[in-house]
Amino acid sequence: MFVSLRRVIGLGWQNLARDGGIAVANIFIMMIPILLATSLFFIKDISAFLVSTLREKADISVYFNDSANEDDILKLQSTISQIQGVQKVDYVSKDNAFDAFSNRHQADPTLMEALQQVNGNPFLASLTVRAADSDQYNTVEKLLSNDQYKGMVNKVNYSEKKDVITKIFSLTDQVTRIGVILFAILGVISTLVTFNTVRLAIINRREEIEVQRLVGASAWFVRGQFLVEGLTFGVLAAAFCLMIAALVCWYASPSLGVLIPGVNLWVNFMASVWSLIGIQLGIGAFLGITSGLFATNKYLKI
Fold first, then answer.
1. CB burial readout 258-274, b (16+ within 10 A) else e
2. CA distance linking residue 49 with residue 126, whole number of Å
3. pLDDT at 32 over 70
4. Looking at the structure, do residues 28 and 86 belong to the same domain, yes or no?
5. Averaging pLDDT over each range in 107-121, 134-148, 154-168, which range is the top one?
6. pTM of the complete model
7. Strand 86-92's sheet: what is its strand order?
8. 223 and 300 in contact (C-beta within 8 Å)?
9. Could you tell me the CATH number of the domain that includes residue 118?
10. Are residues 119 and 76 in the same domain?
11. CB 277 within 8 A of CB 51
12. Considering the domain boundaries, does residue 158 fall inside one?
């Protein structure tokens, strides 16, 4: 058994060395789906960050009357936080709202002068509510419409922001859906290209396969050579793709960080390098082995 296995591996490496230019072409063709998966691996993180950033803008504010007790507001904050789908509820006191406005507009002398002329603090305490889906905001609004909160709630700006919130969630859902569809289409195309390329390489040696079968070689002995060859193609393609990914992340990270603050490709690469290696090796091995299996079946039926 071990002798046969050693012979199969030896013939596989011998075929690989003999193929020359065809072997190099197979490796580069196999890099296409691996690079595609690698790109989508990072695009997924970037798109998730952009979707998250965009959805952070889809929030509503609940403003309270000056007579509202802070303890009651904090209790309401806890109640809203327990609603399924509500991700975050932040409390902003009157003083915090005043300080935030002052810091944000300190370069505008007109606004600052107008603020000084106002007697006291004109801002209201508020809760900022962020939910995972636009439907949760309807639930929050219904809760706040209860009689027990009418004396403390001054205003809820959901009706003003409803159209914008709906559009944001619709846009982010479409982005996610389009990404999945593109991944599926490009994945199928690149996989078919890889299968056909490996198949063409095996067709060139169909007479050799037929001769081996005629002299008594088992189907798995013949097939094993091409499995070793295909697996080697996949591993080499994955290695090259990993190096390309590392270089791209290293050089593109500063520029992308300026364009999209908060995204660091190199940090993401280093944090997920082992997952990425597993994905690349898995795709390379799968394509190399399965394409070898399918392509040899026709010539093994003797």
1. eeeeebbbbebbeeeee
2. 27
3. yes
4. no
5. 134-148
6. 0.61
7. 86-92, 126-131, 59-64, 153-156
8. yes
9. 3.30.70
10. yes
11. no
12. no
